[in-house]
Amino acid sequence: MSIVDLDELECLKLFPSRKINKSYYGGNFFSLVGLNILTYISSIFTLGLAFPYTFRLEKEYEINNTYINGRKLYFDGRTHQLIGKYILRLFLSFITLGLYTFKLNINVTRWVYKHTYDVPIKIKNEYESTIKHLESDFNNRAINFDYYKGRKLDLEKTYLIKGESKFNASFISNFINGLIVKTITIASLGILYPYALCYEENFITKNIIIMGKELKFIGKWKDLFKKYIRWYLLIFATLGIYIFIVPYKIKKWVSENTIFA
Q: What pLDDT digit, counting tens, does each position of 220-255 carry?
């Protein structure tokens, strides 16, 4: 059955999470840590050449386990899309004494969000194929403009698809944001990290578009600061063991406070 034939009830069967109107991260702590360790170790032993593959695995797991306003996210990036550009940019970073690394970071971020969606990949592909056929029929005058526009609006309304996915920030603004975040964190000896993190998430989130829909970060740094203090008391109480859990806790908190604008 084509997606143009689906009614709202059938749509809910495909998107059961739409019944839940909250944002959250459902990934497993041990899986996330395992992927992080794999990325770190493989990058060392392959001199960074394996990074595109392990990075893709890591992002695929993180994104596929993230829900925004109850809508599950999906990632369809592939290693071959990243590896050629990654090797080239590593070389450019080497001959520019590391300066090109900053450009590499934002290009990777753009690649990640370009391949992030809030509908299943199969549905996304069928939607794009249907739109192409509608456009072709309209251009060939097989259908009139009212029919074309009506069909397109029906699809967008049913699946909340309003455009493409992308990361809008410019290189300069992204660089300045990162510099501010690092300055706040270092200058405060880590005490104001919750404020710096919220500042960073506000910038990043407002520049993310998921299939034409803007995101919004609603987290308050004072709320995170309270958790931050408690987490670091647990680090001392567990002789440092809890420090491995803190990044996972932060990821869950950030996801819970990210919504569609």
A: 999 999 999 999 899 999 999 999 899 999 999 999
| DSSP category for residue 73 | P
Give, in order, the Cα–Cα distances in Å from 125 to each of 21, 57, 121, 169, 202.
Answer: 25, 21, 6, 26, 30
DSSP-derived secondary structure for 187-215 = HTTTTTHHHHHHHHHHHHHHTEEETTEEE
CA dihedral over 74, 43, 109, 115, signed as positive or negative:
negative
What are the pLDDT digits (tens) for 9-44?
444 445 544 445 899 999 999 998 888 888 888 878
At a CB cut-off of 8 Å and minimum separation 6, what does 207 contact?
167, 168, 169
Retrieve residue 201's tokens. 């998430």
Contact between 60 and 75 under an 8 Å Cβ cutoff? The reply is yes
Q: Residue 91 to residues 53, 85, 101, 103, 175: CA-CA distances in angstroms? A: 18, 10, 10, 13, 20
C-alpha torsion 8→12→14→18, nearest 10: 120
